[in-house]
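Task 17 of the worksheet. Students: predict the tertiary structure of the chain below and write it out as structure tokens. Keep your answer in the requested format; marks are given for formatting as well as content.
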Amino acid sequence: MKIVINAGHGGNDPGACANNLREKDINLKCALMLQKKLSKYEDVLTESIRVDDQTIDITRLCHVIKSRNADLVLDLHVNGGGGSGTETIHSVNADKNIVILANVIAQNISNGFDVPLRRVFSERGDNGDYYAMHREGSFNAIIIEPLFIDSANDSAILKSPDFYDKYINLVLNAIVRVYDLQKKAVVNLNWKESLQKRTIENEKWIRGFNALTEMANQKGDLGDLEIFKSLPTLVEKYESLIDK
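Model answer:
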């Protein structure tokens, strides 16, 4: 499954701004966090369109989105203009799963933050979809507007320390449920066995790392080899643990 994530606005377009918050900053942090969490699931290929504070005009953005031919596009935003609560927007041509997911995401956010579920909707324009993201980008896109940046209640939630993790988990939970995603298997290593394998010939390791450290010192740039200074002590501690 290919999932594309877009952090709305960016660069010289800050999006909605109020209560010492900028929409573009919130969107970017959410997008990168969601991509990281989705990468832990089987058969999921993710891509974030905006990975820093850059300007991407809507025409170019839609062209990039369309070229990816993704199964799901999540366009992350924060609302403004008065009101409170959450909205999600899907294409007038969205398939059943996209519509279901738009509803589950909105319900999760509404319940999770105890805010109104304003609406889950699509909007038709003169040439099909009203929104360019759907019309020129992808019918599989869902625009997510979780909260209002200019609402006293909603902005307090946006500023809360657990907002990002909680919000992204609510969105993630919806995707996992609708598409029945499975987490990648976690390999549990026996740490004692692993350490033992690495310390069987610890004298060779120590001599080698000491030689590398000496060479780096001669060049005047220890860099990443700084940790090797403590390697002999670490090996002794590891061996004492293994023997227990």
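Marker's comment: The longest strand covers residues 2-7. The domain at 2-179 is CATH 3.40.630.40 (Aminopeptidase).
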